[in-house]
Specification:
Blueprint (H helix, E strand, L loop, with lengths): L26 H13 L4 E6 L2 H7 L5 E8 L2 H4 L5 H27 L4 E3 L9 H6 L4 E3 L5 E3 L5 E8 L14 H9 L1 H5 L18 H4 L3 H5 L1 H5 L1 H12 L3
Antiparallel strand pairs: 1-2, 2-6, 3-6, 4-5
Bound molecules: iron/sulfur cluster (2 copies).
One iron/sulfur cluster binds next to helix 6, helix 7, helix 9 and helix 10.
Pfam families: Fer4 (PF00037)
InterPro entries: 4Fe4S_Fe-S-bd, 4Fe4S_Fe_S_CS
GO molecular function: oxidoreductase activity
């Protein structure tokens, strides 16, 4: 069974980009934006400021990225791999995609340039862009984890806004050490999608083709949540 999900999202823009886009957002409009993001059922937003080096590496000219994060449904995630599961995951993805257009339209209306980065654009890694936010980490099971949850999906808006609240340091690096001692995903993967050194092998993973979520469901970050895992880790390290 090979099922491709996440069909391309149609263009839902209702408002054109401004001819002379603004590049500074006021606190009031930023608060309004965050409120809108919550109203649309996203967790919240993270922000990536892309360096010249990063842009050259990927051949892009984007500077400022808003990452809209949503929680992938637990009800869908806990289903057995199946066509039905893939269809439901895609439906959820499409619904949040439509809302991401509405948020970008709001920004256009406020005078900013706002374009959605195509979620299926293979030429650029959305994860690499997400990592530039210093607000997430790639787990050993290759999930792009934010503190809010392990099962986070996201859309990205490229914008002219230069003064977003970018983070300059990533305080989630400890997860790499935690993962290297854990290895539950490596041991329990039904497809053996990890090499001899325990490194993830994308080609062998069936998450995006058949809807496997086993490693997510078994992961301590999914079961207990980021804060609890961190607290336990720090206690063990003698930090607390
Ligand atoms: S199961 Fe363990 S090793 Fe795998 S991603 Fe989760 S914490 Fe990391
Ligand atoms: S999603 Fe499934 S196949 Fe992919 S790494 Fe996790 S357990 Fe293995």
């Amino acid at each position: 069974m090979r099922i491709r999900y996440h069909q391309p999202i149609p263009n839902f823009f209702k408002i054109e980009n401004p001819i002379n886009p603004l590049n500074s957002i006021s606190d009031d409009v930023l608060n309004e934006l965050n409120q809108l993001i919550n109203e649309k059922d996203f967790f919240n937003a993270s922000f990536s400021r892309l360096s010249e080096e990063f842009k050259n590496e990927w051949g892009i000219d984007w500077d400022n990225i808003i990452i809209l994060k949503y929680k992938m449904s637990d009800d869908i995630l806990t289903m057995e791999p199946s066509r039905e599961k893939c269809v439901l995951e895609d439906k959820e993805f499409q619904e949040f995609g439509k809302k991401a257009f509405e948020i970008a339209d709001y920004l256009r209306q406020k005078g900013f340039r706002a374009d959605l980065i195509h979620p299926l654009d293979d030429a650029v890694s959305l994860r690499a862009i997400a990592m530039q936010s210093n607000d997430c980490i790639i787990t050993r099971s290759n999930m792009c984890m934010f503190k809010e949850a392990l099962n986070v999906g996201f859309f990205m808006i490229e914008t002219s806004i230069e003064n977003l609240p970018f983070k300059s340091e990533n305080d989630m690096q400890w997860v790499e050490d935690f993962c290297s001692a854990c290895g539950v995903c490596v041991d329990r993967c039904p497809e053996n999608a990890f090499d001899e050194e325990g490194k993830f092998q994308r080609k062998l993973c069936t998450a995006h083709k058949e809807g496997c979520s086993k490693c997510v469901l078994l992961c301590p970050f999914y079961k207990r949540g980021y804060d609890k895992v961190k607290k336990r880790y720090e206690r063990k390290q003698g930090v607390l």
